[in-house]
């Protein structure tokens, strides 16, 4: 596939900054000066605006990017329903979500390398809430793939922004904006509508959260101040990189490109005569980006009590209610714990938010036992107001542990997709995948000990008796 020499040299360079106005050109002079859409853009390119928000969104919320490309995106034959639509074949019909109060946990999901699936065909909807047609809600997914996408193919989702969390295997993601190499312990976000292709160096597995409404932001720091958690400077966006593979007719087979789109969790397909990766330059604040989780600055107590897990929030997608998120992405990386007379693991609680957890590597300090355990590649779901917390063994260990400063989670990283929405489970997640751990709640908390001891010489008095 012919590319420019300059673009090849820039393949894995990145620009830094979160939600900043960035620009990149693979050939000097590709970006017009002083005009977004001049009468004749440089080098005979087409100007195409990619809007991530309504035109009239407030200036501080407005997301848009101008792409300067060889041919516009609209130059393709009509889309047709795809026979590979997972909504039709994999029990992912969101109208049939099962909303249940029971705690759920899954064994590691299959790698699928023997099934010869790529990133798109290997993605499965496990749980979700809302309706992508109304641009409301989220989808919680896992992926497992054993091969790269075809070099003459691309995919985009019209449903929402996709946050990808690799657990095993590197993802070499080619986007319209350029390339992103995303490894385990890194994450990336592909905005709604951006075309991309995923190349693999071996079997890959991980998690993803699709955001049907709004976009991810950095959480406000409040009393923490100007530093801490994820810093804007550590987010990276690709530099422009393009191909000149165009001009053939779609009927010529090997010279055409397969384009797949996901709309309302259903796949559609077309073949077009030119590559979708023909953007020579771009400028704006709507672009794919990645982040190294190792750069997260954890915050914690140095006196007493265990802070809320919100102190581990990397990205947040706010709802219309102040301080309440449609989706938070939270991590639990290696960190020091101190605290006087304080229970160290996450305490027992019932939450108005839904919590979907996964484990990228290592072990989780609040889950040591249970039916099969909470292990890398697996997941758990604790729905709205479903009680949960450390399993019995973890509680006893923490209750009797010395309170000297200790570093927990060495070599480990768990994460959580947290949402204010009540989350339903798909047929695939509940039955088809055959990974749900039976007896999870009983084996985790059925053995919780009673430590209550009635004080000697004390009478139980009732105000009703008086």
Give a structural overview.
With 466 residues, this protein is mainly beta. The protein has two domains: 5-91 and 117-292, Jelly Rolls (Sandwich); 294-443, Jelly Rolls. The protein is built from five helices and 28 strands. It has helices at 5-9, 86-89, 392-399, 427-432, 440-445, and strands spanning 14-16, 22-25, 46-51, 64-69, 80-81, 104-106, 123-131, 136-145, 153-157, 161-168, 171-175, 178-182, 186-190, 196-200, 204-211, 235-238, 257-263, 266-272, 279-284, 289-292, 313-318, 325-332, 335-337, 354-361, 379-382, 406-408, 413-419, 424-425. Strands 1-16-20-13-10-15-8-7-28 form a nine-stranded antiparallel β-sheet. Strands 6-25-24-27-22-21 form a six-stranded antiparallel β-sheet, with no helix packed on it. The protein is globular. 43% of the residues are buried. The model is unreliable at 1-9 (pLDDT under 50). Its cofactor is Fe cation. Residues 295-451 form the Homogentisate 1,2-dioxygenase C-terminal domain. Pfam families: HgmA_C, HgmA_N. Belongs to the homogentisate dioxygenase family. Keywords: Dioxygenase, Iron, Metal-binding, Oxidoreductase, Phenylalanine catabolism, Tyrosine catabolism.
Descriptive tags:
466 residues; mainly beta; Jelly Rolls; 2 domains; 9-stranded antiparallel beta sheet; 28 strands; globular
Order of adjacent strands in the largest pleated sheet: 1-16-20-13-10-15-8-7-28
Question: Which class do the helix and strand fractions yield?
Answer: mainly beta
| Unreliable stretches | 1-9
Give the C-alpha Rg. 24 Å
CATH topology of the largest domain: Jelly Rolls
The helical percent reads under 10%
Strand count: 28
Shape: globular
Number of domains: 2
| Broad CATH class of the largest domain | Mainly Beta
Number of helices: 5
**Mean pLDDT score:** 90
% residues in beta strands: 25-35%
Cofactor: Fe cation
Pathway: Amino-acid degradation; L-phenylalanine degradation; acetoacetate and fumarate from L-phenylalanine: step 4/6
Family: Belongs to the homogentisate dioxygenase family.
Binding site for Fe cation: 349, 355, 388
């Amino acid at each position: 596939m012919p590319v420019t020499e300059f673009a090849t040299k820039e393949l894995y360079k990145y620009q830094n900054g979160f939600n900043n106005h960035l620009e990149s050109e693979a050939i000097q002079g590709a970006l017009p000066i002083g005009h977004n859409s001049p009468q004749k853009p440089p080098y005979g390119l087409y100007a195409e605006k990619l809007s991530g928000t309504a035109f009239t969104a407030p200036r501080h919320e407005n997301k848009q990017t101008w792409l300067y490309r060889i041919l516009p995106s609209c130059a393709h034959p009509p889309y047709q329903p795809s026979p590979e639509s997972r909504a039709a074949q994999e029990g992912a019909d969101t109208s049939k979500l099962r909303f249940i109060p029971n705690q759920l946990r899954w064994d590691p999901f299959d790698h699928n390398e023997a099934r010869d699936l790529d990133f798109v065909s290997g993605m499965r909807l496990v749980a979700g809430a809302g309706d992508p047609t109304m641009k409301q809600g989220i989808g919680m997914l896992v992926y497992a793939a054993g091969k790269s996408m075809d070099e003459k193919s691309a995919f985009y989702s019209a449903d929402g922004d996709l946050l990808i969390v690799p657990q095993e295997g590197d993802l070499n993601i080619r986007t319209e904006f350029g390339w992103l190499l995303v490894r385990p312990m890194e994450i990336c976000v592909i905005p709604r509508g951006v075309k991309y292709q995923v190349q693999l160096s071996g079997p890959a597995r991980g998690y993803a959260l699709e955001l049907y409404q709004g976009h991810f932001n950095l959480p406000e720091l409040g009393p923490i101040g100007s530093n801490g958690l994820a810093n804007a400077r550590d987010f990276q966006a690709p530099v422009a990189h393009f191909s000149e593979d165009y001009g053939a007719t779609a009927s010529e087979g090997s010279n055409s490109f397969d384009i797949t789109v996901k709309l309302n969790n259903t796949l559609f397909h077309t073949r077009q005569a030119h590559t979708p990766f023909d953007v020579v330059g771009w400028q704006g604040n709507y672009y794919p980006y990645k982040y190294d989780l190792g750069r997260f600055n954890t915050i914690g107590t140095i006196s007493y009590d265990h802070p809320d897990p919100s102190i581990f929030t990397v990205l947040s997608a706010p709802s219309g209610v102040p301080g309440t998120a449609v989706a938070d992405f939270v991590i639990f990386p290696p960190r020091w714990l101190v605290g006087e007379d304080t229970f160290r693991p996450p305490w027992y609680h019932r939450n108005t938010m839904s919590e979907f957890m996964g484990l990228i590597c290592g072990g989780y300090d609040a889950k040591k036992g249970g039916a099969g355990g909470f292990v890398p590649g697996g997941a758990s779901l604790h729905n709205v107001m479903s009680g949960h917390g450390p399993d019995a063994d973890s509680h006893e260990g923490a209750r009797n542990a010395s309170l000297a400063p200790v570093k927990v989670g060495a070599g480990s990283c768990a994460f959580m997709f947290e949402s204010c929405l009540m989350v339903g489970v798909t047929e695939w997640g509940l039955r088809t995948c055959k990974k749900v751990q039976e007896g999870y709640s009983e084996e985790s908390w059925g053995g919780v000990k009673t430590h209550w001891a009635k004080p000697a010489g004390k009478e139980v008095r009732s105000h009703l008796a008086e």
